[in-house]
Amino acid sequence: MKESLGAKTLIYPAPVLVVGTYDRTGKPNVMTASWGGICCSQPPCVAVSLRQATYTYGNILERKAFTISIPSEQHVKEVDYFGLFSGRDVDKFAASKFTAVRSTLVDAPYVQEFALVVECKLAQVIALGLHTQFVGEVVDVRRSRQSLRRAVWWILRK
Amino acid sequence: MKESLGAKTLIYPAPVLVVGTYDRTGKPNVMTASWGGICCSQPPCVAVSLRQATYTYGNILERKAFTISIPSEQHVKEVDYFGLFSGRDVDKFAASKFTAVRSTLVDAPYVQEFALVVECKLAQVIALGLHTQFVGEVVDVRRSRQSLRRAVWWILRK
């Protein structure tokens, strides 16, 4: 017998996705989102759901591109901040002292300090309700050489 | 400096979603998928990406409904099996000895033994490429009373 909890958004775990975009003036912005992930193998695509109220929403429509940086546990404080404030009001890169790097493939920045970065060009915009889903085609995935060194060290240690 | 890994499907972590459906004869089926999750707050929606080759793909189109059961660590063996074999060839409920329960709200079964179940009616079918994304509106979420007892015990113990 199962107890009803009502029509709620209760699936776990969810990833921590840091979405990187440029606004129309060229200011880089990041926001933390957790409703998204890989959604297609060929072409490789990721989806991320955003409310229209977010600054990132307009940026993606304007630039037709975004990146998704995957943070580490050590960045939890900054990543929480990225999800609490709007790029409309603050410069999150300046505040966090993280480095915005311009992607060479898409019109969006990524976070230098994060180990894994997925670079996407906008493929589809799907209206769902309060959230809109942005589907991006993955153009490249990049990882820090540092993370590679750590992985090799981890394997050798075993 | 970051090293290019190519256009790959490399976001982590991903959830473990056990998708429950009926086929046209009424046989309950489950498959394990990991490309999906919550995608909208109002109406509450989940998305799951499936290849056309899966048995579940046809079942969802036929029945316009599916459930997502969230397994626990103790079910890892059965959940792996659910992702390796097709319901076209085997009866996964019979083989795993799990219990298929008919949802009272949507035309789909769920796994009695799993602690959390999300019941969905099909809302959108989105062609992405090799994968198709099924968006389901969440009609109800159910949890085992056992999991509630465990949660209460956990809180009281603290």
Provide a descriptive summary of the structure in words:
The structure is a homodimer of 158-residue chains. With 158 residues, the first copy, chain A, is of the alpha+beta class. Chain A is built from 4 helices and 10 strands. Chain A has helices at residues 55-63, 76-84, 92-96, 145-157, and strands at 2-6, 17-22, 28-33, 36-40, 45-51, 65-70, 100-102, 109-111, 116-127, 131-144. The longest helix of chain A has 13 residues, at 145-157. Chain A is globular and about 50 Å long. At the A-B interface, strand 1, strand 4, strand 5, strand 9 and strand 10 of A face strand 1, strand 4, strand 5, strand 9 and strand 10 of B. Strand 1 of chain A pairs antiparallel with strand 10 (131-144) of chain B, so a sheet runs across the interface.
Tell me which oligomeric state these chains represent.
homodimer
- The percent range for strand residues of chain A is 35-45%
Cα distance spanning the termini of chain A: 45 Å
Alpha-beta classification of chain A: alpha+beta
**Portion in helices of chain A:** 10-25%
Which strand order spans the largest sheet of chain A, edge to edge or round the barrel? Answer: 3-2-6-9-10-5-4
Tell me the overall shape of chain A. globular
H-E string of chain A: EEEEEHEHHEEEEH
Q: Measured on Cα atoms, how large is the radius of gyration of chain A?
A: 16 Å
Number of helices of chain A: 4
Low-confidence spans of chain A? none
DSSP summary, beta strand count of chain A: 10
Q: Largest inter-chain interface?
A: A-B, 57 and 57 residues
Summarize the structure.
Helices cover 23% and strands 42% of the residues of chain A. Chain A has helices spanning 55-63, 76-84, 92-96, 145-157; strands spanning 2-6, 17-22, 28-33, 36-40, 45-51, 65-70, 100-102, 109-111, 116-127, 131-144.
